[in-house]
Write a structure and sequence with these properties.
182 residues, mainly alpha, 49% helix, 9% strand
Length: 182
């Protein structure tokens, strides 16, 4: 059974509500280091975390890559500004690439296609990719929410399109006229 960390604190001086188990690779590393925590930050980690966040790598995967626990990554973001800046830049660039791809799908774009003929010659053609209505709809409902939100309005009518009576009048009609009780 893996060892349970009993000295872990979450930064506010209080232990977490339950004990947290370290992954086995961290336990092995701690054992090799004589029980010391491996939080030896290296400046090269900033560049690596940029590329990992560009790929949307989660904290757990990044921690495994650097051989530390998740909270050490969070600690590095607080203590090493270059690490946090690289983290945020990776996130921003990933979001920008996706936004650009969505924008291109919404507005249409040109691509070059190379074709190889039967005789082995290569010809290049420019092909236009038409705008995608689904991408346009997604873009507009998220960028201009107030103008492009889908609204559905339901209206109930009776037979032949007649207006319905309010429920209180319907109940009164079903119950019959009010009779005085004696």
């Amino acid at each position: 059974m893996p060892a349970i960390r009993k000295s872990y604190h979450n930064g506010n001086g209080k232990p977490p509500p339950m004990h947290i188990r370290e992954p086995e690779y961290v336990q092995a590393q701690r054992k090799a280091n004589g029980g010391a925590r491996n939080d030896s930050y290296q400046p090269r980690f900033a560049e690596e975390v940029y590329w990992l966040r560009l790929l949307s790598a989660p904290v757990k995967l990044i921690a495994e890559r650097f051989g530390v626990v998740d909270n050490t990554i969070r600690y590095w973001r607080q203590v090493h500004p270059e690490f946090d800046a690289a983290w945020q830049e990776g996130d921003l660039m990933a979001d920008a690439k996706v936004a650009n791809a969505l924008f291109q799908r919404a507005t249409g774009f040109y691509v070059k296609e190379e074709r190889v003929s039967e005789d082995g010659s290569i010809s290049t053609q420019v092909k236009y990719i038409a705008p995608d209505v689904g991408a346009q709809k997604f873009w507009l409902t998220n960028r201009a929410r107030t103008q492009w939100v889908e609204r559905t309005q339901q209206e109930l009518t009776g037979a032949g399109g007649e207006k319905l009576l309010p429920p209180t009048l319907v109940l009164q009609a079903l119950e019959g006229p009010n009779e005085e009780k004696t």
